[in-house]
Amino acid sequence: MTKTYPKASRPSLDNVSVSIEKGEFVFFIGPSGSGKSTIIKMLLHEVAPNKGRVVVNGKDVTSMRSWKRPHFRRSIGCVFQDFRLLPNRTAYENVAFALEVIGKTKAVARRVVPEVLELVGLGGKEHRYPHELSGGEQQRVAVARAFVNRPLILLADEPTGNLDPDTSIEIMRLLDRINRTGTTVVMVTHDSNIVNQMRRRVVEIESGRIVRDQARGVYG
Amino acid sequence: MRVKYVLSEVLVGLWRNVTMSIAMIITMAVSLTMLGASGLMYRQVDDMKDLYYKNIEVSIFLTQEVTEQERTDLQTKLDGDPLVKDVLYVNKDEAYKRFKEMYQDAPDLVNAVKPDQLPEAFRLKLNNPEQYKNVYDQYKDTAGVEEIIDQSRLLDKIFNILTSIQNIALAAAIVMAIAALLLVANTIQVAAYSKRREVAVMKLVGASNWFIQAPFVLEAVVAGLIGSLLGLVALVAAKYLLFDGSLSALQGLLSPITWGDILFIFPLMAGVGGLVSAGTAWITLRFYLRV
After folding, report:
1. What is the pLDDT of residues B250-266, one digit of tens each?
2. Residue A109: which residues within 8 A CB-CB, separation 6 or more?
3. For B200, which of A73, A84, A100 is closest by C-beta distance?
4. In this predicted model, what pLDDT tens digit does every residue of B108-155 receive, in sequence order?
5. Which residues on A lie below 8 Å from B197 (Cβ)?
6. Regarding the domain delimited by B64-143, which CATH topology (the fold level of the hierarchy) does it fall under?
7. Where in chain B are the domains?
8. What are the ABC transporter domain coordinates in residue numbering (chain A) (predicted)?
9. DSSP E strands: which ranges in chain B?
10. A1-75+151-220: what CATH class?
11. Which residues of chain A does B208 touch, with a Cβ-Cβ cutoff of 8 Å?
């Protein structure tokens, strides 16, 4: 697929073709502006390619109407570098919010949220506000929120970008654990350390082209 | 839970930006009051037109030296005219009697006028008062006719004034409505900005569009409905203080405004207030939230 942003001199993604199997763990690496984030946006149906198709969970989302987007997004979890937590809500409320706004009842939230907070290692800190948590803990809350609805795919856009190396490793262990439950994990990163430790599939992008696609790769 | 959530968001939203909410409600109320007033006047003018035009007369005054023959010819012609419903002949004595009645407060004037000086006349009721012009054209050159006077020309002037007052009220309603629209748009933008984090998360986790938009749209609708209620209060006060109060002297002239009329106009005000706010909010969100 090809994506050219308006006013851009060269395409952000140029004739890129990549296929990710269910249950895989994939790193997208490459310098800033190489087009990694554009892939995430396409998977989220935030931007559409100019040429080619995007197929997610067996559904062609290239021509999906925008009113179907909300329902589509419920099958995808998302984690970002800046956590994107709601500052005036506790860890529990942040995770429960994600359930309640898609129509799940409070009873469901009461059952599921403590479970998933336990899974990410935040048992006992449910009622802390984001500012009372460390960066790593905030990112765990974000992961819990992304995972609480049991998505098929977890997209992580530089999830360790704001964290120190040790904390980053802990977050990676968490993502690895989530991957083992059968969830496909797609992660965009600059962090060579992490890529080298994890030894998972690596897709390297440069100037909008795939220059490397390697199973059990390193940062290079 | 979802309904409760949406409703509490609405109240929180109105309260968060309370000065703006009040400004929005006040402009909305003024605009809807004007709209309601102009609606009431529309009915009022219609009622008055019915009332007055039904009783309207065209008078054909005859010359002093009209002959018996001319008078009978005219009478026959009028009797056979399809435009004319009723013909009443008023001779000099009857004209004098009417004159005396009309000016009984001014005896000097009555004494100064002799029955002879007053012209004989035919008083006509027309089937359709608006066809006065045809009647005028048809009879103005008939022998023995001095002058044709139509009361509806006077009424037209009055109704023109009433219609322009009504138009001014409507124009004021529209101008205020534009101000209200801009305030609604601004309030919604501020609300969307202060909830941008929540909205971003909701979009991310796949909350449906209506769920994201509903609190904002309802916030505007609630403001519109409160505005229309205030407008209703203003109209009731206007009837109570103006029509039943200081203008009650004109009661015989103006057809009365009933409580029923005001209650009848209220759904219009509430509907316009609610729908216009909802529409503005929704369009604002399309630009601002891009959901």
Report:
1. 666 666 778 888 888 89
2. A95, A96, A99, A100
3. A84
4. 777 787 777 788 888 888 777 777 777 788 777 777 788 888 777 777
5. 84, 86-87
6. Alpha-Beta Plaits (3.30.70)
7. 2-52+156-288, 64-143
8. 2-219
9. 58-62, 84-90, 121-126, 145-150
10. alpha beta
11. 70-71, 102-103
